[in-house]
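Structure ticket #2291
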Amino acid sequence: MTPTAPARQAVAVGLTGWRLPVAGTAVLELAAGLGADGVQLDLGGPGRGEPLDAPGTVEALRERSAATGVVLLGVAANTLNDIGLTAPAGGVDARRVRDTVVRLLDTAHALGAPLAFVPSFRRSAIDGSEALRRTAEVLAWAAAEATSRGLVLANENVLDAARAVELVEGVGSPAFRLLLDTYNPHAAGIDTVGLIAGAGRHFADQVHVKDGLGGADGTVPLGAGDGNVEAVLAATARHRVGVRTLVLENDYRDGDTVRLATDIAWARRQAKTLTARLNEVDE
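Resolution: structure written out below.
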C-alpha cells in the first residue's frame, strides 16, 4: 500500500490590527469574538497609535493572547513608510530606520510573534534601481538581526516578479521573505498571479487579503472587487507558496463589524479550499 501524505494543518484566518476600530488588547478581544485565529499588530509611532513597546504593553498582549487563544502572528513597522528605508546611509533618517527596525524585531521577539515585516510604500517606495539596491542593503542587515532573534523578516512591496527576485537575491538571507498582498500589486498594474508564478517560492506563509475597485482598496467586500482574489489564492497553492494564514487587510476602522464578520466568513471558505488544494499539491 502506498503511504499517503499527512494532512496539512488547516489554513488559518487572521486580522491586521491597524485596520480595526480598536487598539491594544481590544484587538485580541474583537478577534476572539469574531472567531479569528490570530492578529498582526503595528509597532505604532507618530500618527499611528501608541507604541507597541510602551511599558507593560507587551506583557498585556501576551496575557490576552493566552487567555483568548488568538495568536500573535507578526508585527509591522508601518512608520517606516513615513521615514524611508531608502534614506542615504549615515543620515538622520537612516539612523531612525535602524532604530525602528531594532525596536520592531525586539518587540516581535518579546511577543513571541514569528514574523516581523517592513513595508516599501510612500517614502520607502522602491521606485528605481538605486532604491532597490539601498533597500536590499538595509534589509540584509535587518535579516541578520532577525536571524539572531529567531524571526522571519519580510518586506511588502509592489515590485514585479523579476525585480522581487532581484531584491531577495540582494538581501541574500534564508530568514528573508516577501509578503504577498492580494490587491496592492493589481492596483500598481502588476499581474498578481504572474507575480506568484515568478516569485512564489520567496513569499512568507502569511498573506494579506484585501480587495478593491479601480485601484482603491479596503472597503469592497472580499471577492466583490476587481482584484480576482480567489484566483490569486488558488495560484498560491498551484505555485507551492505554502500559505498558513490569510490575514484580512480590508479597512474596518469604521466599526462595521457586520462587514468584518462577512469577510471573515468569506476568508474561512477560501481557507478551507486552500487547505484542500495544498494537500493535493503535497501528495
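Closing remark: The two ends are 14 Å apart (CA to CA).
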